[in-house]
Amino acid sequence: MNSNVPLHQFSRFSSTNVDETLRNVTNVFCPHQFELLEHARSFAAQLNEAKFSQSALVYISYGTAVNIQTEQLGNCFLIQVPWQGQAEVAVENVITHIQPGIASVVSPEQAMNMRWSNDCSFFTVRLDRQKVERKLSQLIGHELHDPLTFDTKFDLTTAEGKSWMNAVNFAKQQLELPLNPIIAKPLLQQIEDTLCLMLLQLPHHNYRDKLNVGHDNVTPRSVKRARDYIHDNIHLDISLEQLAMVTGVVPSTLNKHFSHFIGQSPMKYIRGQKLAAVHEVLQSSNENVSVTDVAIKYGFNHLGRFAEYYKRRYGERPSDTLQRSK
Q1: Could you tell me the CATH number of the domain that includes residue 282?
Q2: Residue 286: what pLDDT?
Q3: pLDDT (0 to 100) of residue 1
Q4: What is the pLDDT, as a whole number, of residue 215?
Q5: Last residue of some domain: 159, 179, 209?
Q6: Residue 315 lies in a domain
Q7: Backbone dihedral region of 58: left (phi > 0), alpha (psi from -120 to 50 degrees) or beta?
Q8: Which residues of the chain have pLDDT under 50?
Q9: Do 45 and 73 fall into the same domain?
Q10: Domain presence at residue 2
Q11: Helix or strand (DSSP H, E) at 138
Q12: How high is the pLDDT of residue 153?
């Protein structure tokens, strides 16, 4: 193992077999198609992965020129920093040339095609989609109406780019330290939260205007009180009438306030928050957890309807999330 490459002490696998590499890389990122280019040299893949909470830092090299095609990433944002060499990344028919100093950001809803040079390798940050979107939702004061999507090109020479790399390098340094186990978990969760927030600082994504407006400052007190009550009592069966009593406004007015400032009804907002709570539990579960128990705990008594809502929001069945966490 070359000790000069990032995360060399976190080797996940190395291989000279294309099929074996495809299987392993799929497990780390997502299903994809993979082929050697015509001018490829000898194939020698190396992947290092350091996990923290639901996210990870990953170094990957194929030792030769390759072409990679993916469908939607689904559960993560990928920030790909070239370690050496260069690549072309095509997202939604826009080609971005990336090399040291120019990174790429690929969003969960986007398909991607990449062509790597013979000497190309990447230092990639894989951030959990739900973590990033939950942070954004908290900042703007309501659930996301559309998927969060970034421009692909990320200039690391800008102020945002330099700040991002400083944070990533700090995360890398902490992962490489022999941390006290009691301190390690909360520290790495804090680092993950920081990287999620710093990603949202990038100037080119579809929610940037909402962040700049300071939307929550103009939200009526009734909506803020209702949201606080919902978050504090997420386990309970909350009705519109209860929220009206808590906020001191009639149900029809509360409905209008939520529709205007949140973009959805109070009851739909409650369901979304309950789904998010279930998802978080399933992602960090242990062997004794069942989907049924968690769903009922958060008030989903119609399990078939719950599973439908869950899959529509997270793109997979609740049992899939639970199995992956185990």
Answers
A1: 1.10.10.60
A2: 64
A3: 59
A4: 47
A5: 209
A6: yes
A7: beta
A8: 214-216
A9: yes
A10: no
A11: helix 129-140
A12: 94
Tokens of 170: 């700090």
Which string of b and e fits 198-217 if b means at least 16 CB within 10 Å?
Answer: bbbebeebebeebeeeebbe
Residues 179, 234: one domain?
no
pLDDT at 156: 92
Q: Tell whether 3 is covered by a domain.
A: no
SS3 string of 196-245?
Answer: HHHHHCCCCECCHHHHHHCHHHHCCHHHHHHHHHHHHCCCCCCCHHHHHH
Q: On the CB side of 77, how many CA atoms lie within 13 Å of its CA?
A: 25
Q: Report phi then psi at 126, rounded to 5.
A: -105, 110
Question: What share of residues in the chain are helix, strand, coil (percent, to 5)?
Answer: 45, 20, 30
Put the strands of the sheet holding 45-52 in their side by side order.
11-15, 45-52, 55-61, 121-128, 76-84, 102-106, 153-155
Q: Tell me the angle at which helices 240-247 and 266-283 cross, rounded to the nearest 10 degrees.
A: 100
Nearest residue to 280 (alpha-carbon basis) of 129, 137, 147: 129
Nearest CA to 112 out of 85, 94, 131 is that of 94
Residue 38 — left, alpha, or beta (φ > 0 → left; ψ -120 to 50 → alpha)?
alpha
